[in-house]
Amino acid sequence: MPFFVLVDYDNLATRDKSQTLVYVTDKILNILSPAEVTQKNVTVRLYGGWYENNNMTRKAQNLSAEIGGAFPKTTTLSDNKATAVVSVELALSLQIAPADFLYNTFRRHGYPAGLMAHDPVARGCHHPVCPISEVYKFLQQNYCHVCRTVRPEDIIYRQEQKLVDTMLTSDMIFLGNSEKAFCLVSSDDDFWPGIYTSLIGGATVYHIHTKLRATPRHYTKSNRANYLQKQL
């Protein structure tokens, strides 16, 4: 099996997501030493809300097109000598059941309940035509005071990913039981149970943080030698 790199895509910094996937994968692999990339073939799995109902989101379509045009590719590792063949894929299913796609992982929900706003004037804004004042009036009056027709619930909604974190965690546990090592790219503490399960099972986990931080000490106090943290 290849060496797996599991990427929590939306947890990447905006500056990285604005670059190409070639840039992102090269950046990740250059943080790992050639000795840590235990296979000559590397599979980078991108986790995100790729399906709205049964249809691929626009983001997923764009990434899929980019993947098809740029990968697989041979990448030189951090010693500028060793190479690996890198493939990239969207995580559309679980590793344990690759043929069973998980749909409806991106959802749009209606107007968020309990949404409140402060009067910008009370907060120190004294501009005579402050646009935020119009937003405040819109939310407070519950309708547009110009057309008196449009309401907040008509135009405001929130986006949400579903199943994505548990998909990634399930894959970590699966790989932890079948592979000697894998890499996780995320700074989300919610993944710690999956990391810890893999470590207990004997896998080596290379955890690359997407933010300037480390996993909280109250999680890592066991000081397991098979858990190595790095910074993207």
Short description:
By secondary structure, the protein is an alpha/beta fold. It contains eight helices and 13 strands.
Q: Would you state the CATH class of the largest domain? A: Alpha Beta
Largest sheet descriptor? 7 strands, mixed
Structural class: alpha/beta
Taken from the alpha-carbon principal axes, the silhouette is elongated
Helix content: 25-40%
Mean pLDDT: 92
Cross-sheet strand order for the largest sheet: 5-6-2-1-11-12-13
Radius of gyration: 22 Å
Beta-strand segment tally:
13
**CATH topology term of the largest domain:** Rossmann fold
Describe this structure as you would to a colleague.
- By secondary structure, this protein is of the alpha/beta class.
- The chain has two domains: 3-107 and 160-231, Rossmann fold, CATH 3.40.50; 111-156, no CATH class.
- It is built from eight helices and 13 strands.
- The protein has helices at 14-17, 21-31, 58-70, 131-141, 152-155, 164-178, 192-200, 217-220, and strands at 3-8, 41-47, 51-52, 55-56, 73-76, 83-90, 93-94, 97-101, 106-109, 158-161, 181-185, 204-209, 227-231.
- The strands form four sheets. A seven-stranded mixed sheet has the order 5-6-2-1-11-12-13, with helices on both faces. Strands 3-4 form a two-stranded antiparallel ribbon. Strands 7-8 form a two-stranded antiparallel sheet.
- Strand 11, helix 7 and strand 12 (204-209) form a beta-alpha-beta unit.
- The radius of gyration is 22 Å and the shape is elongated.
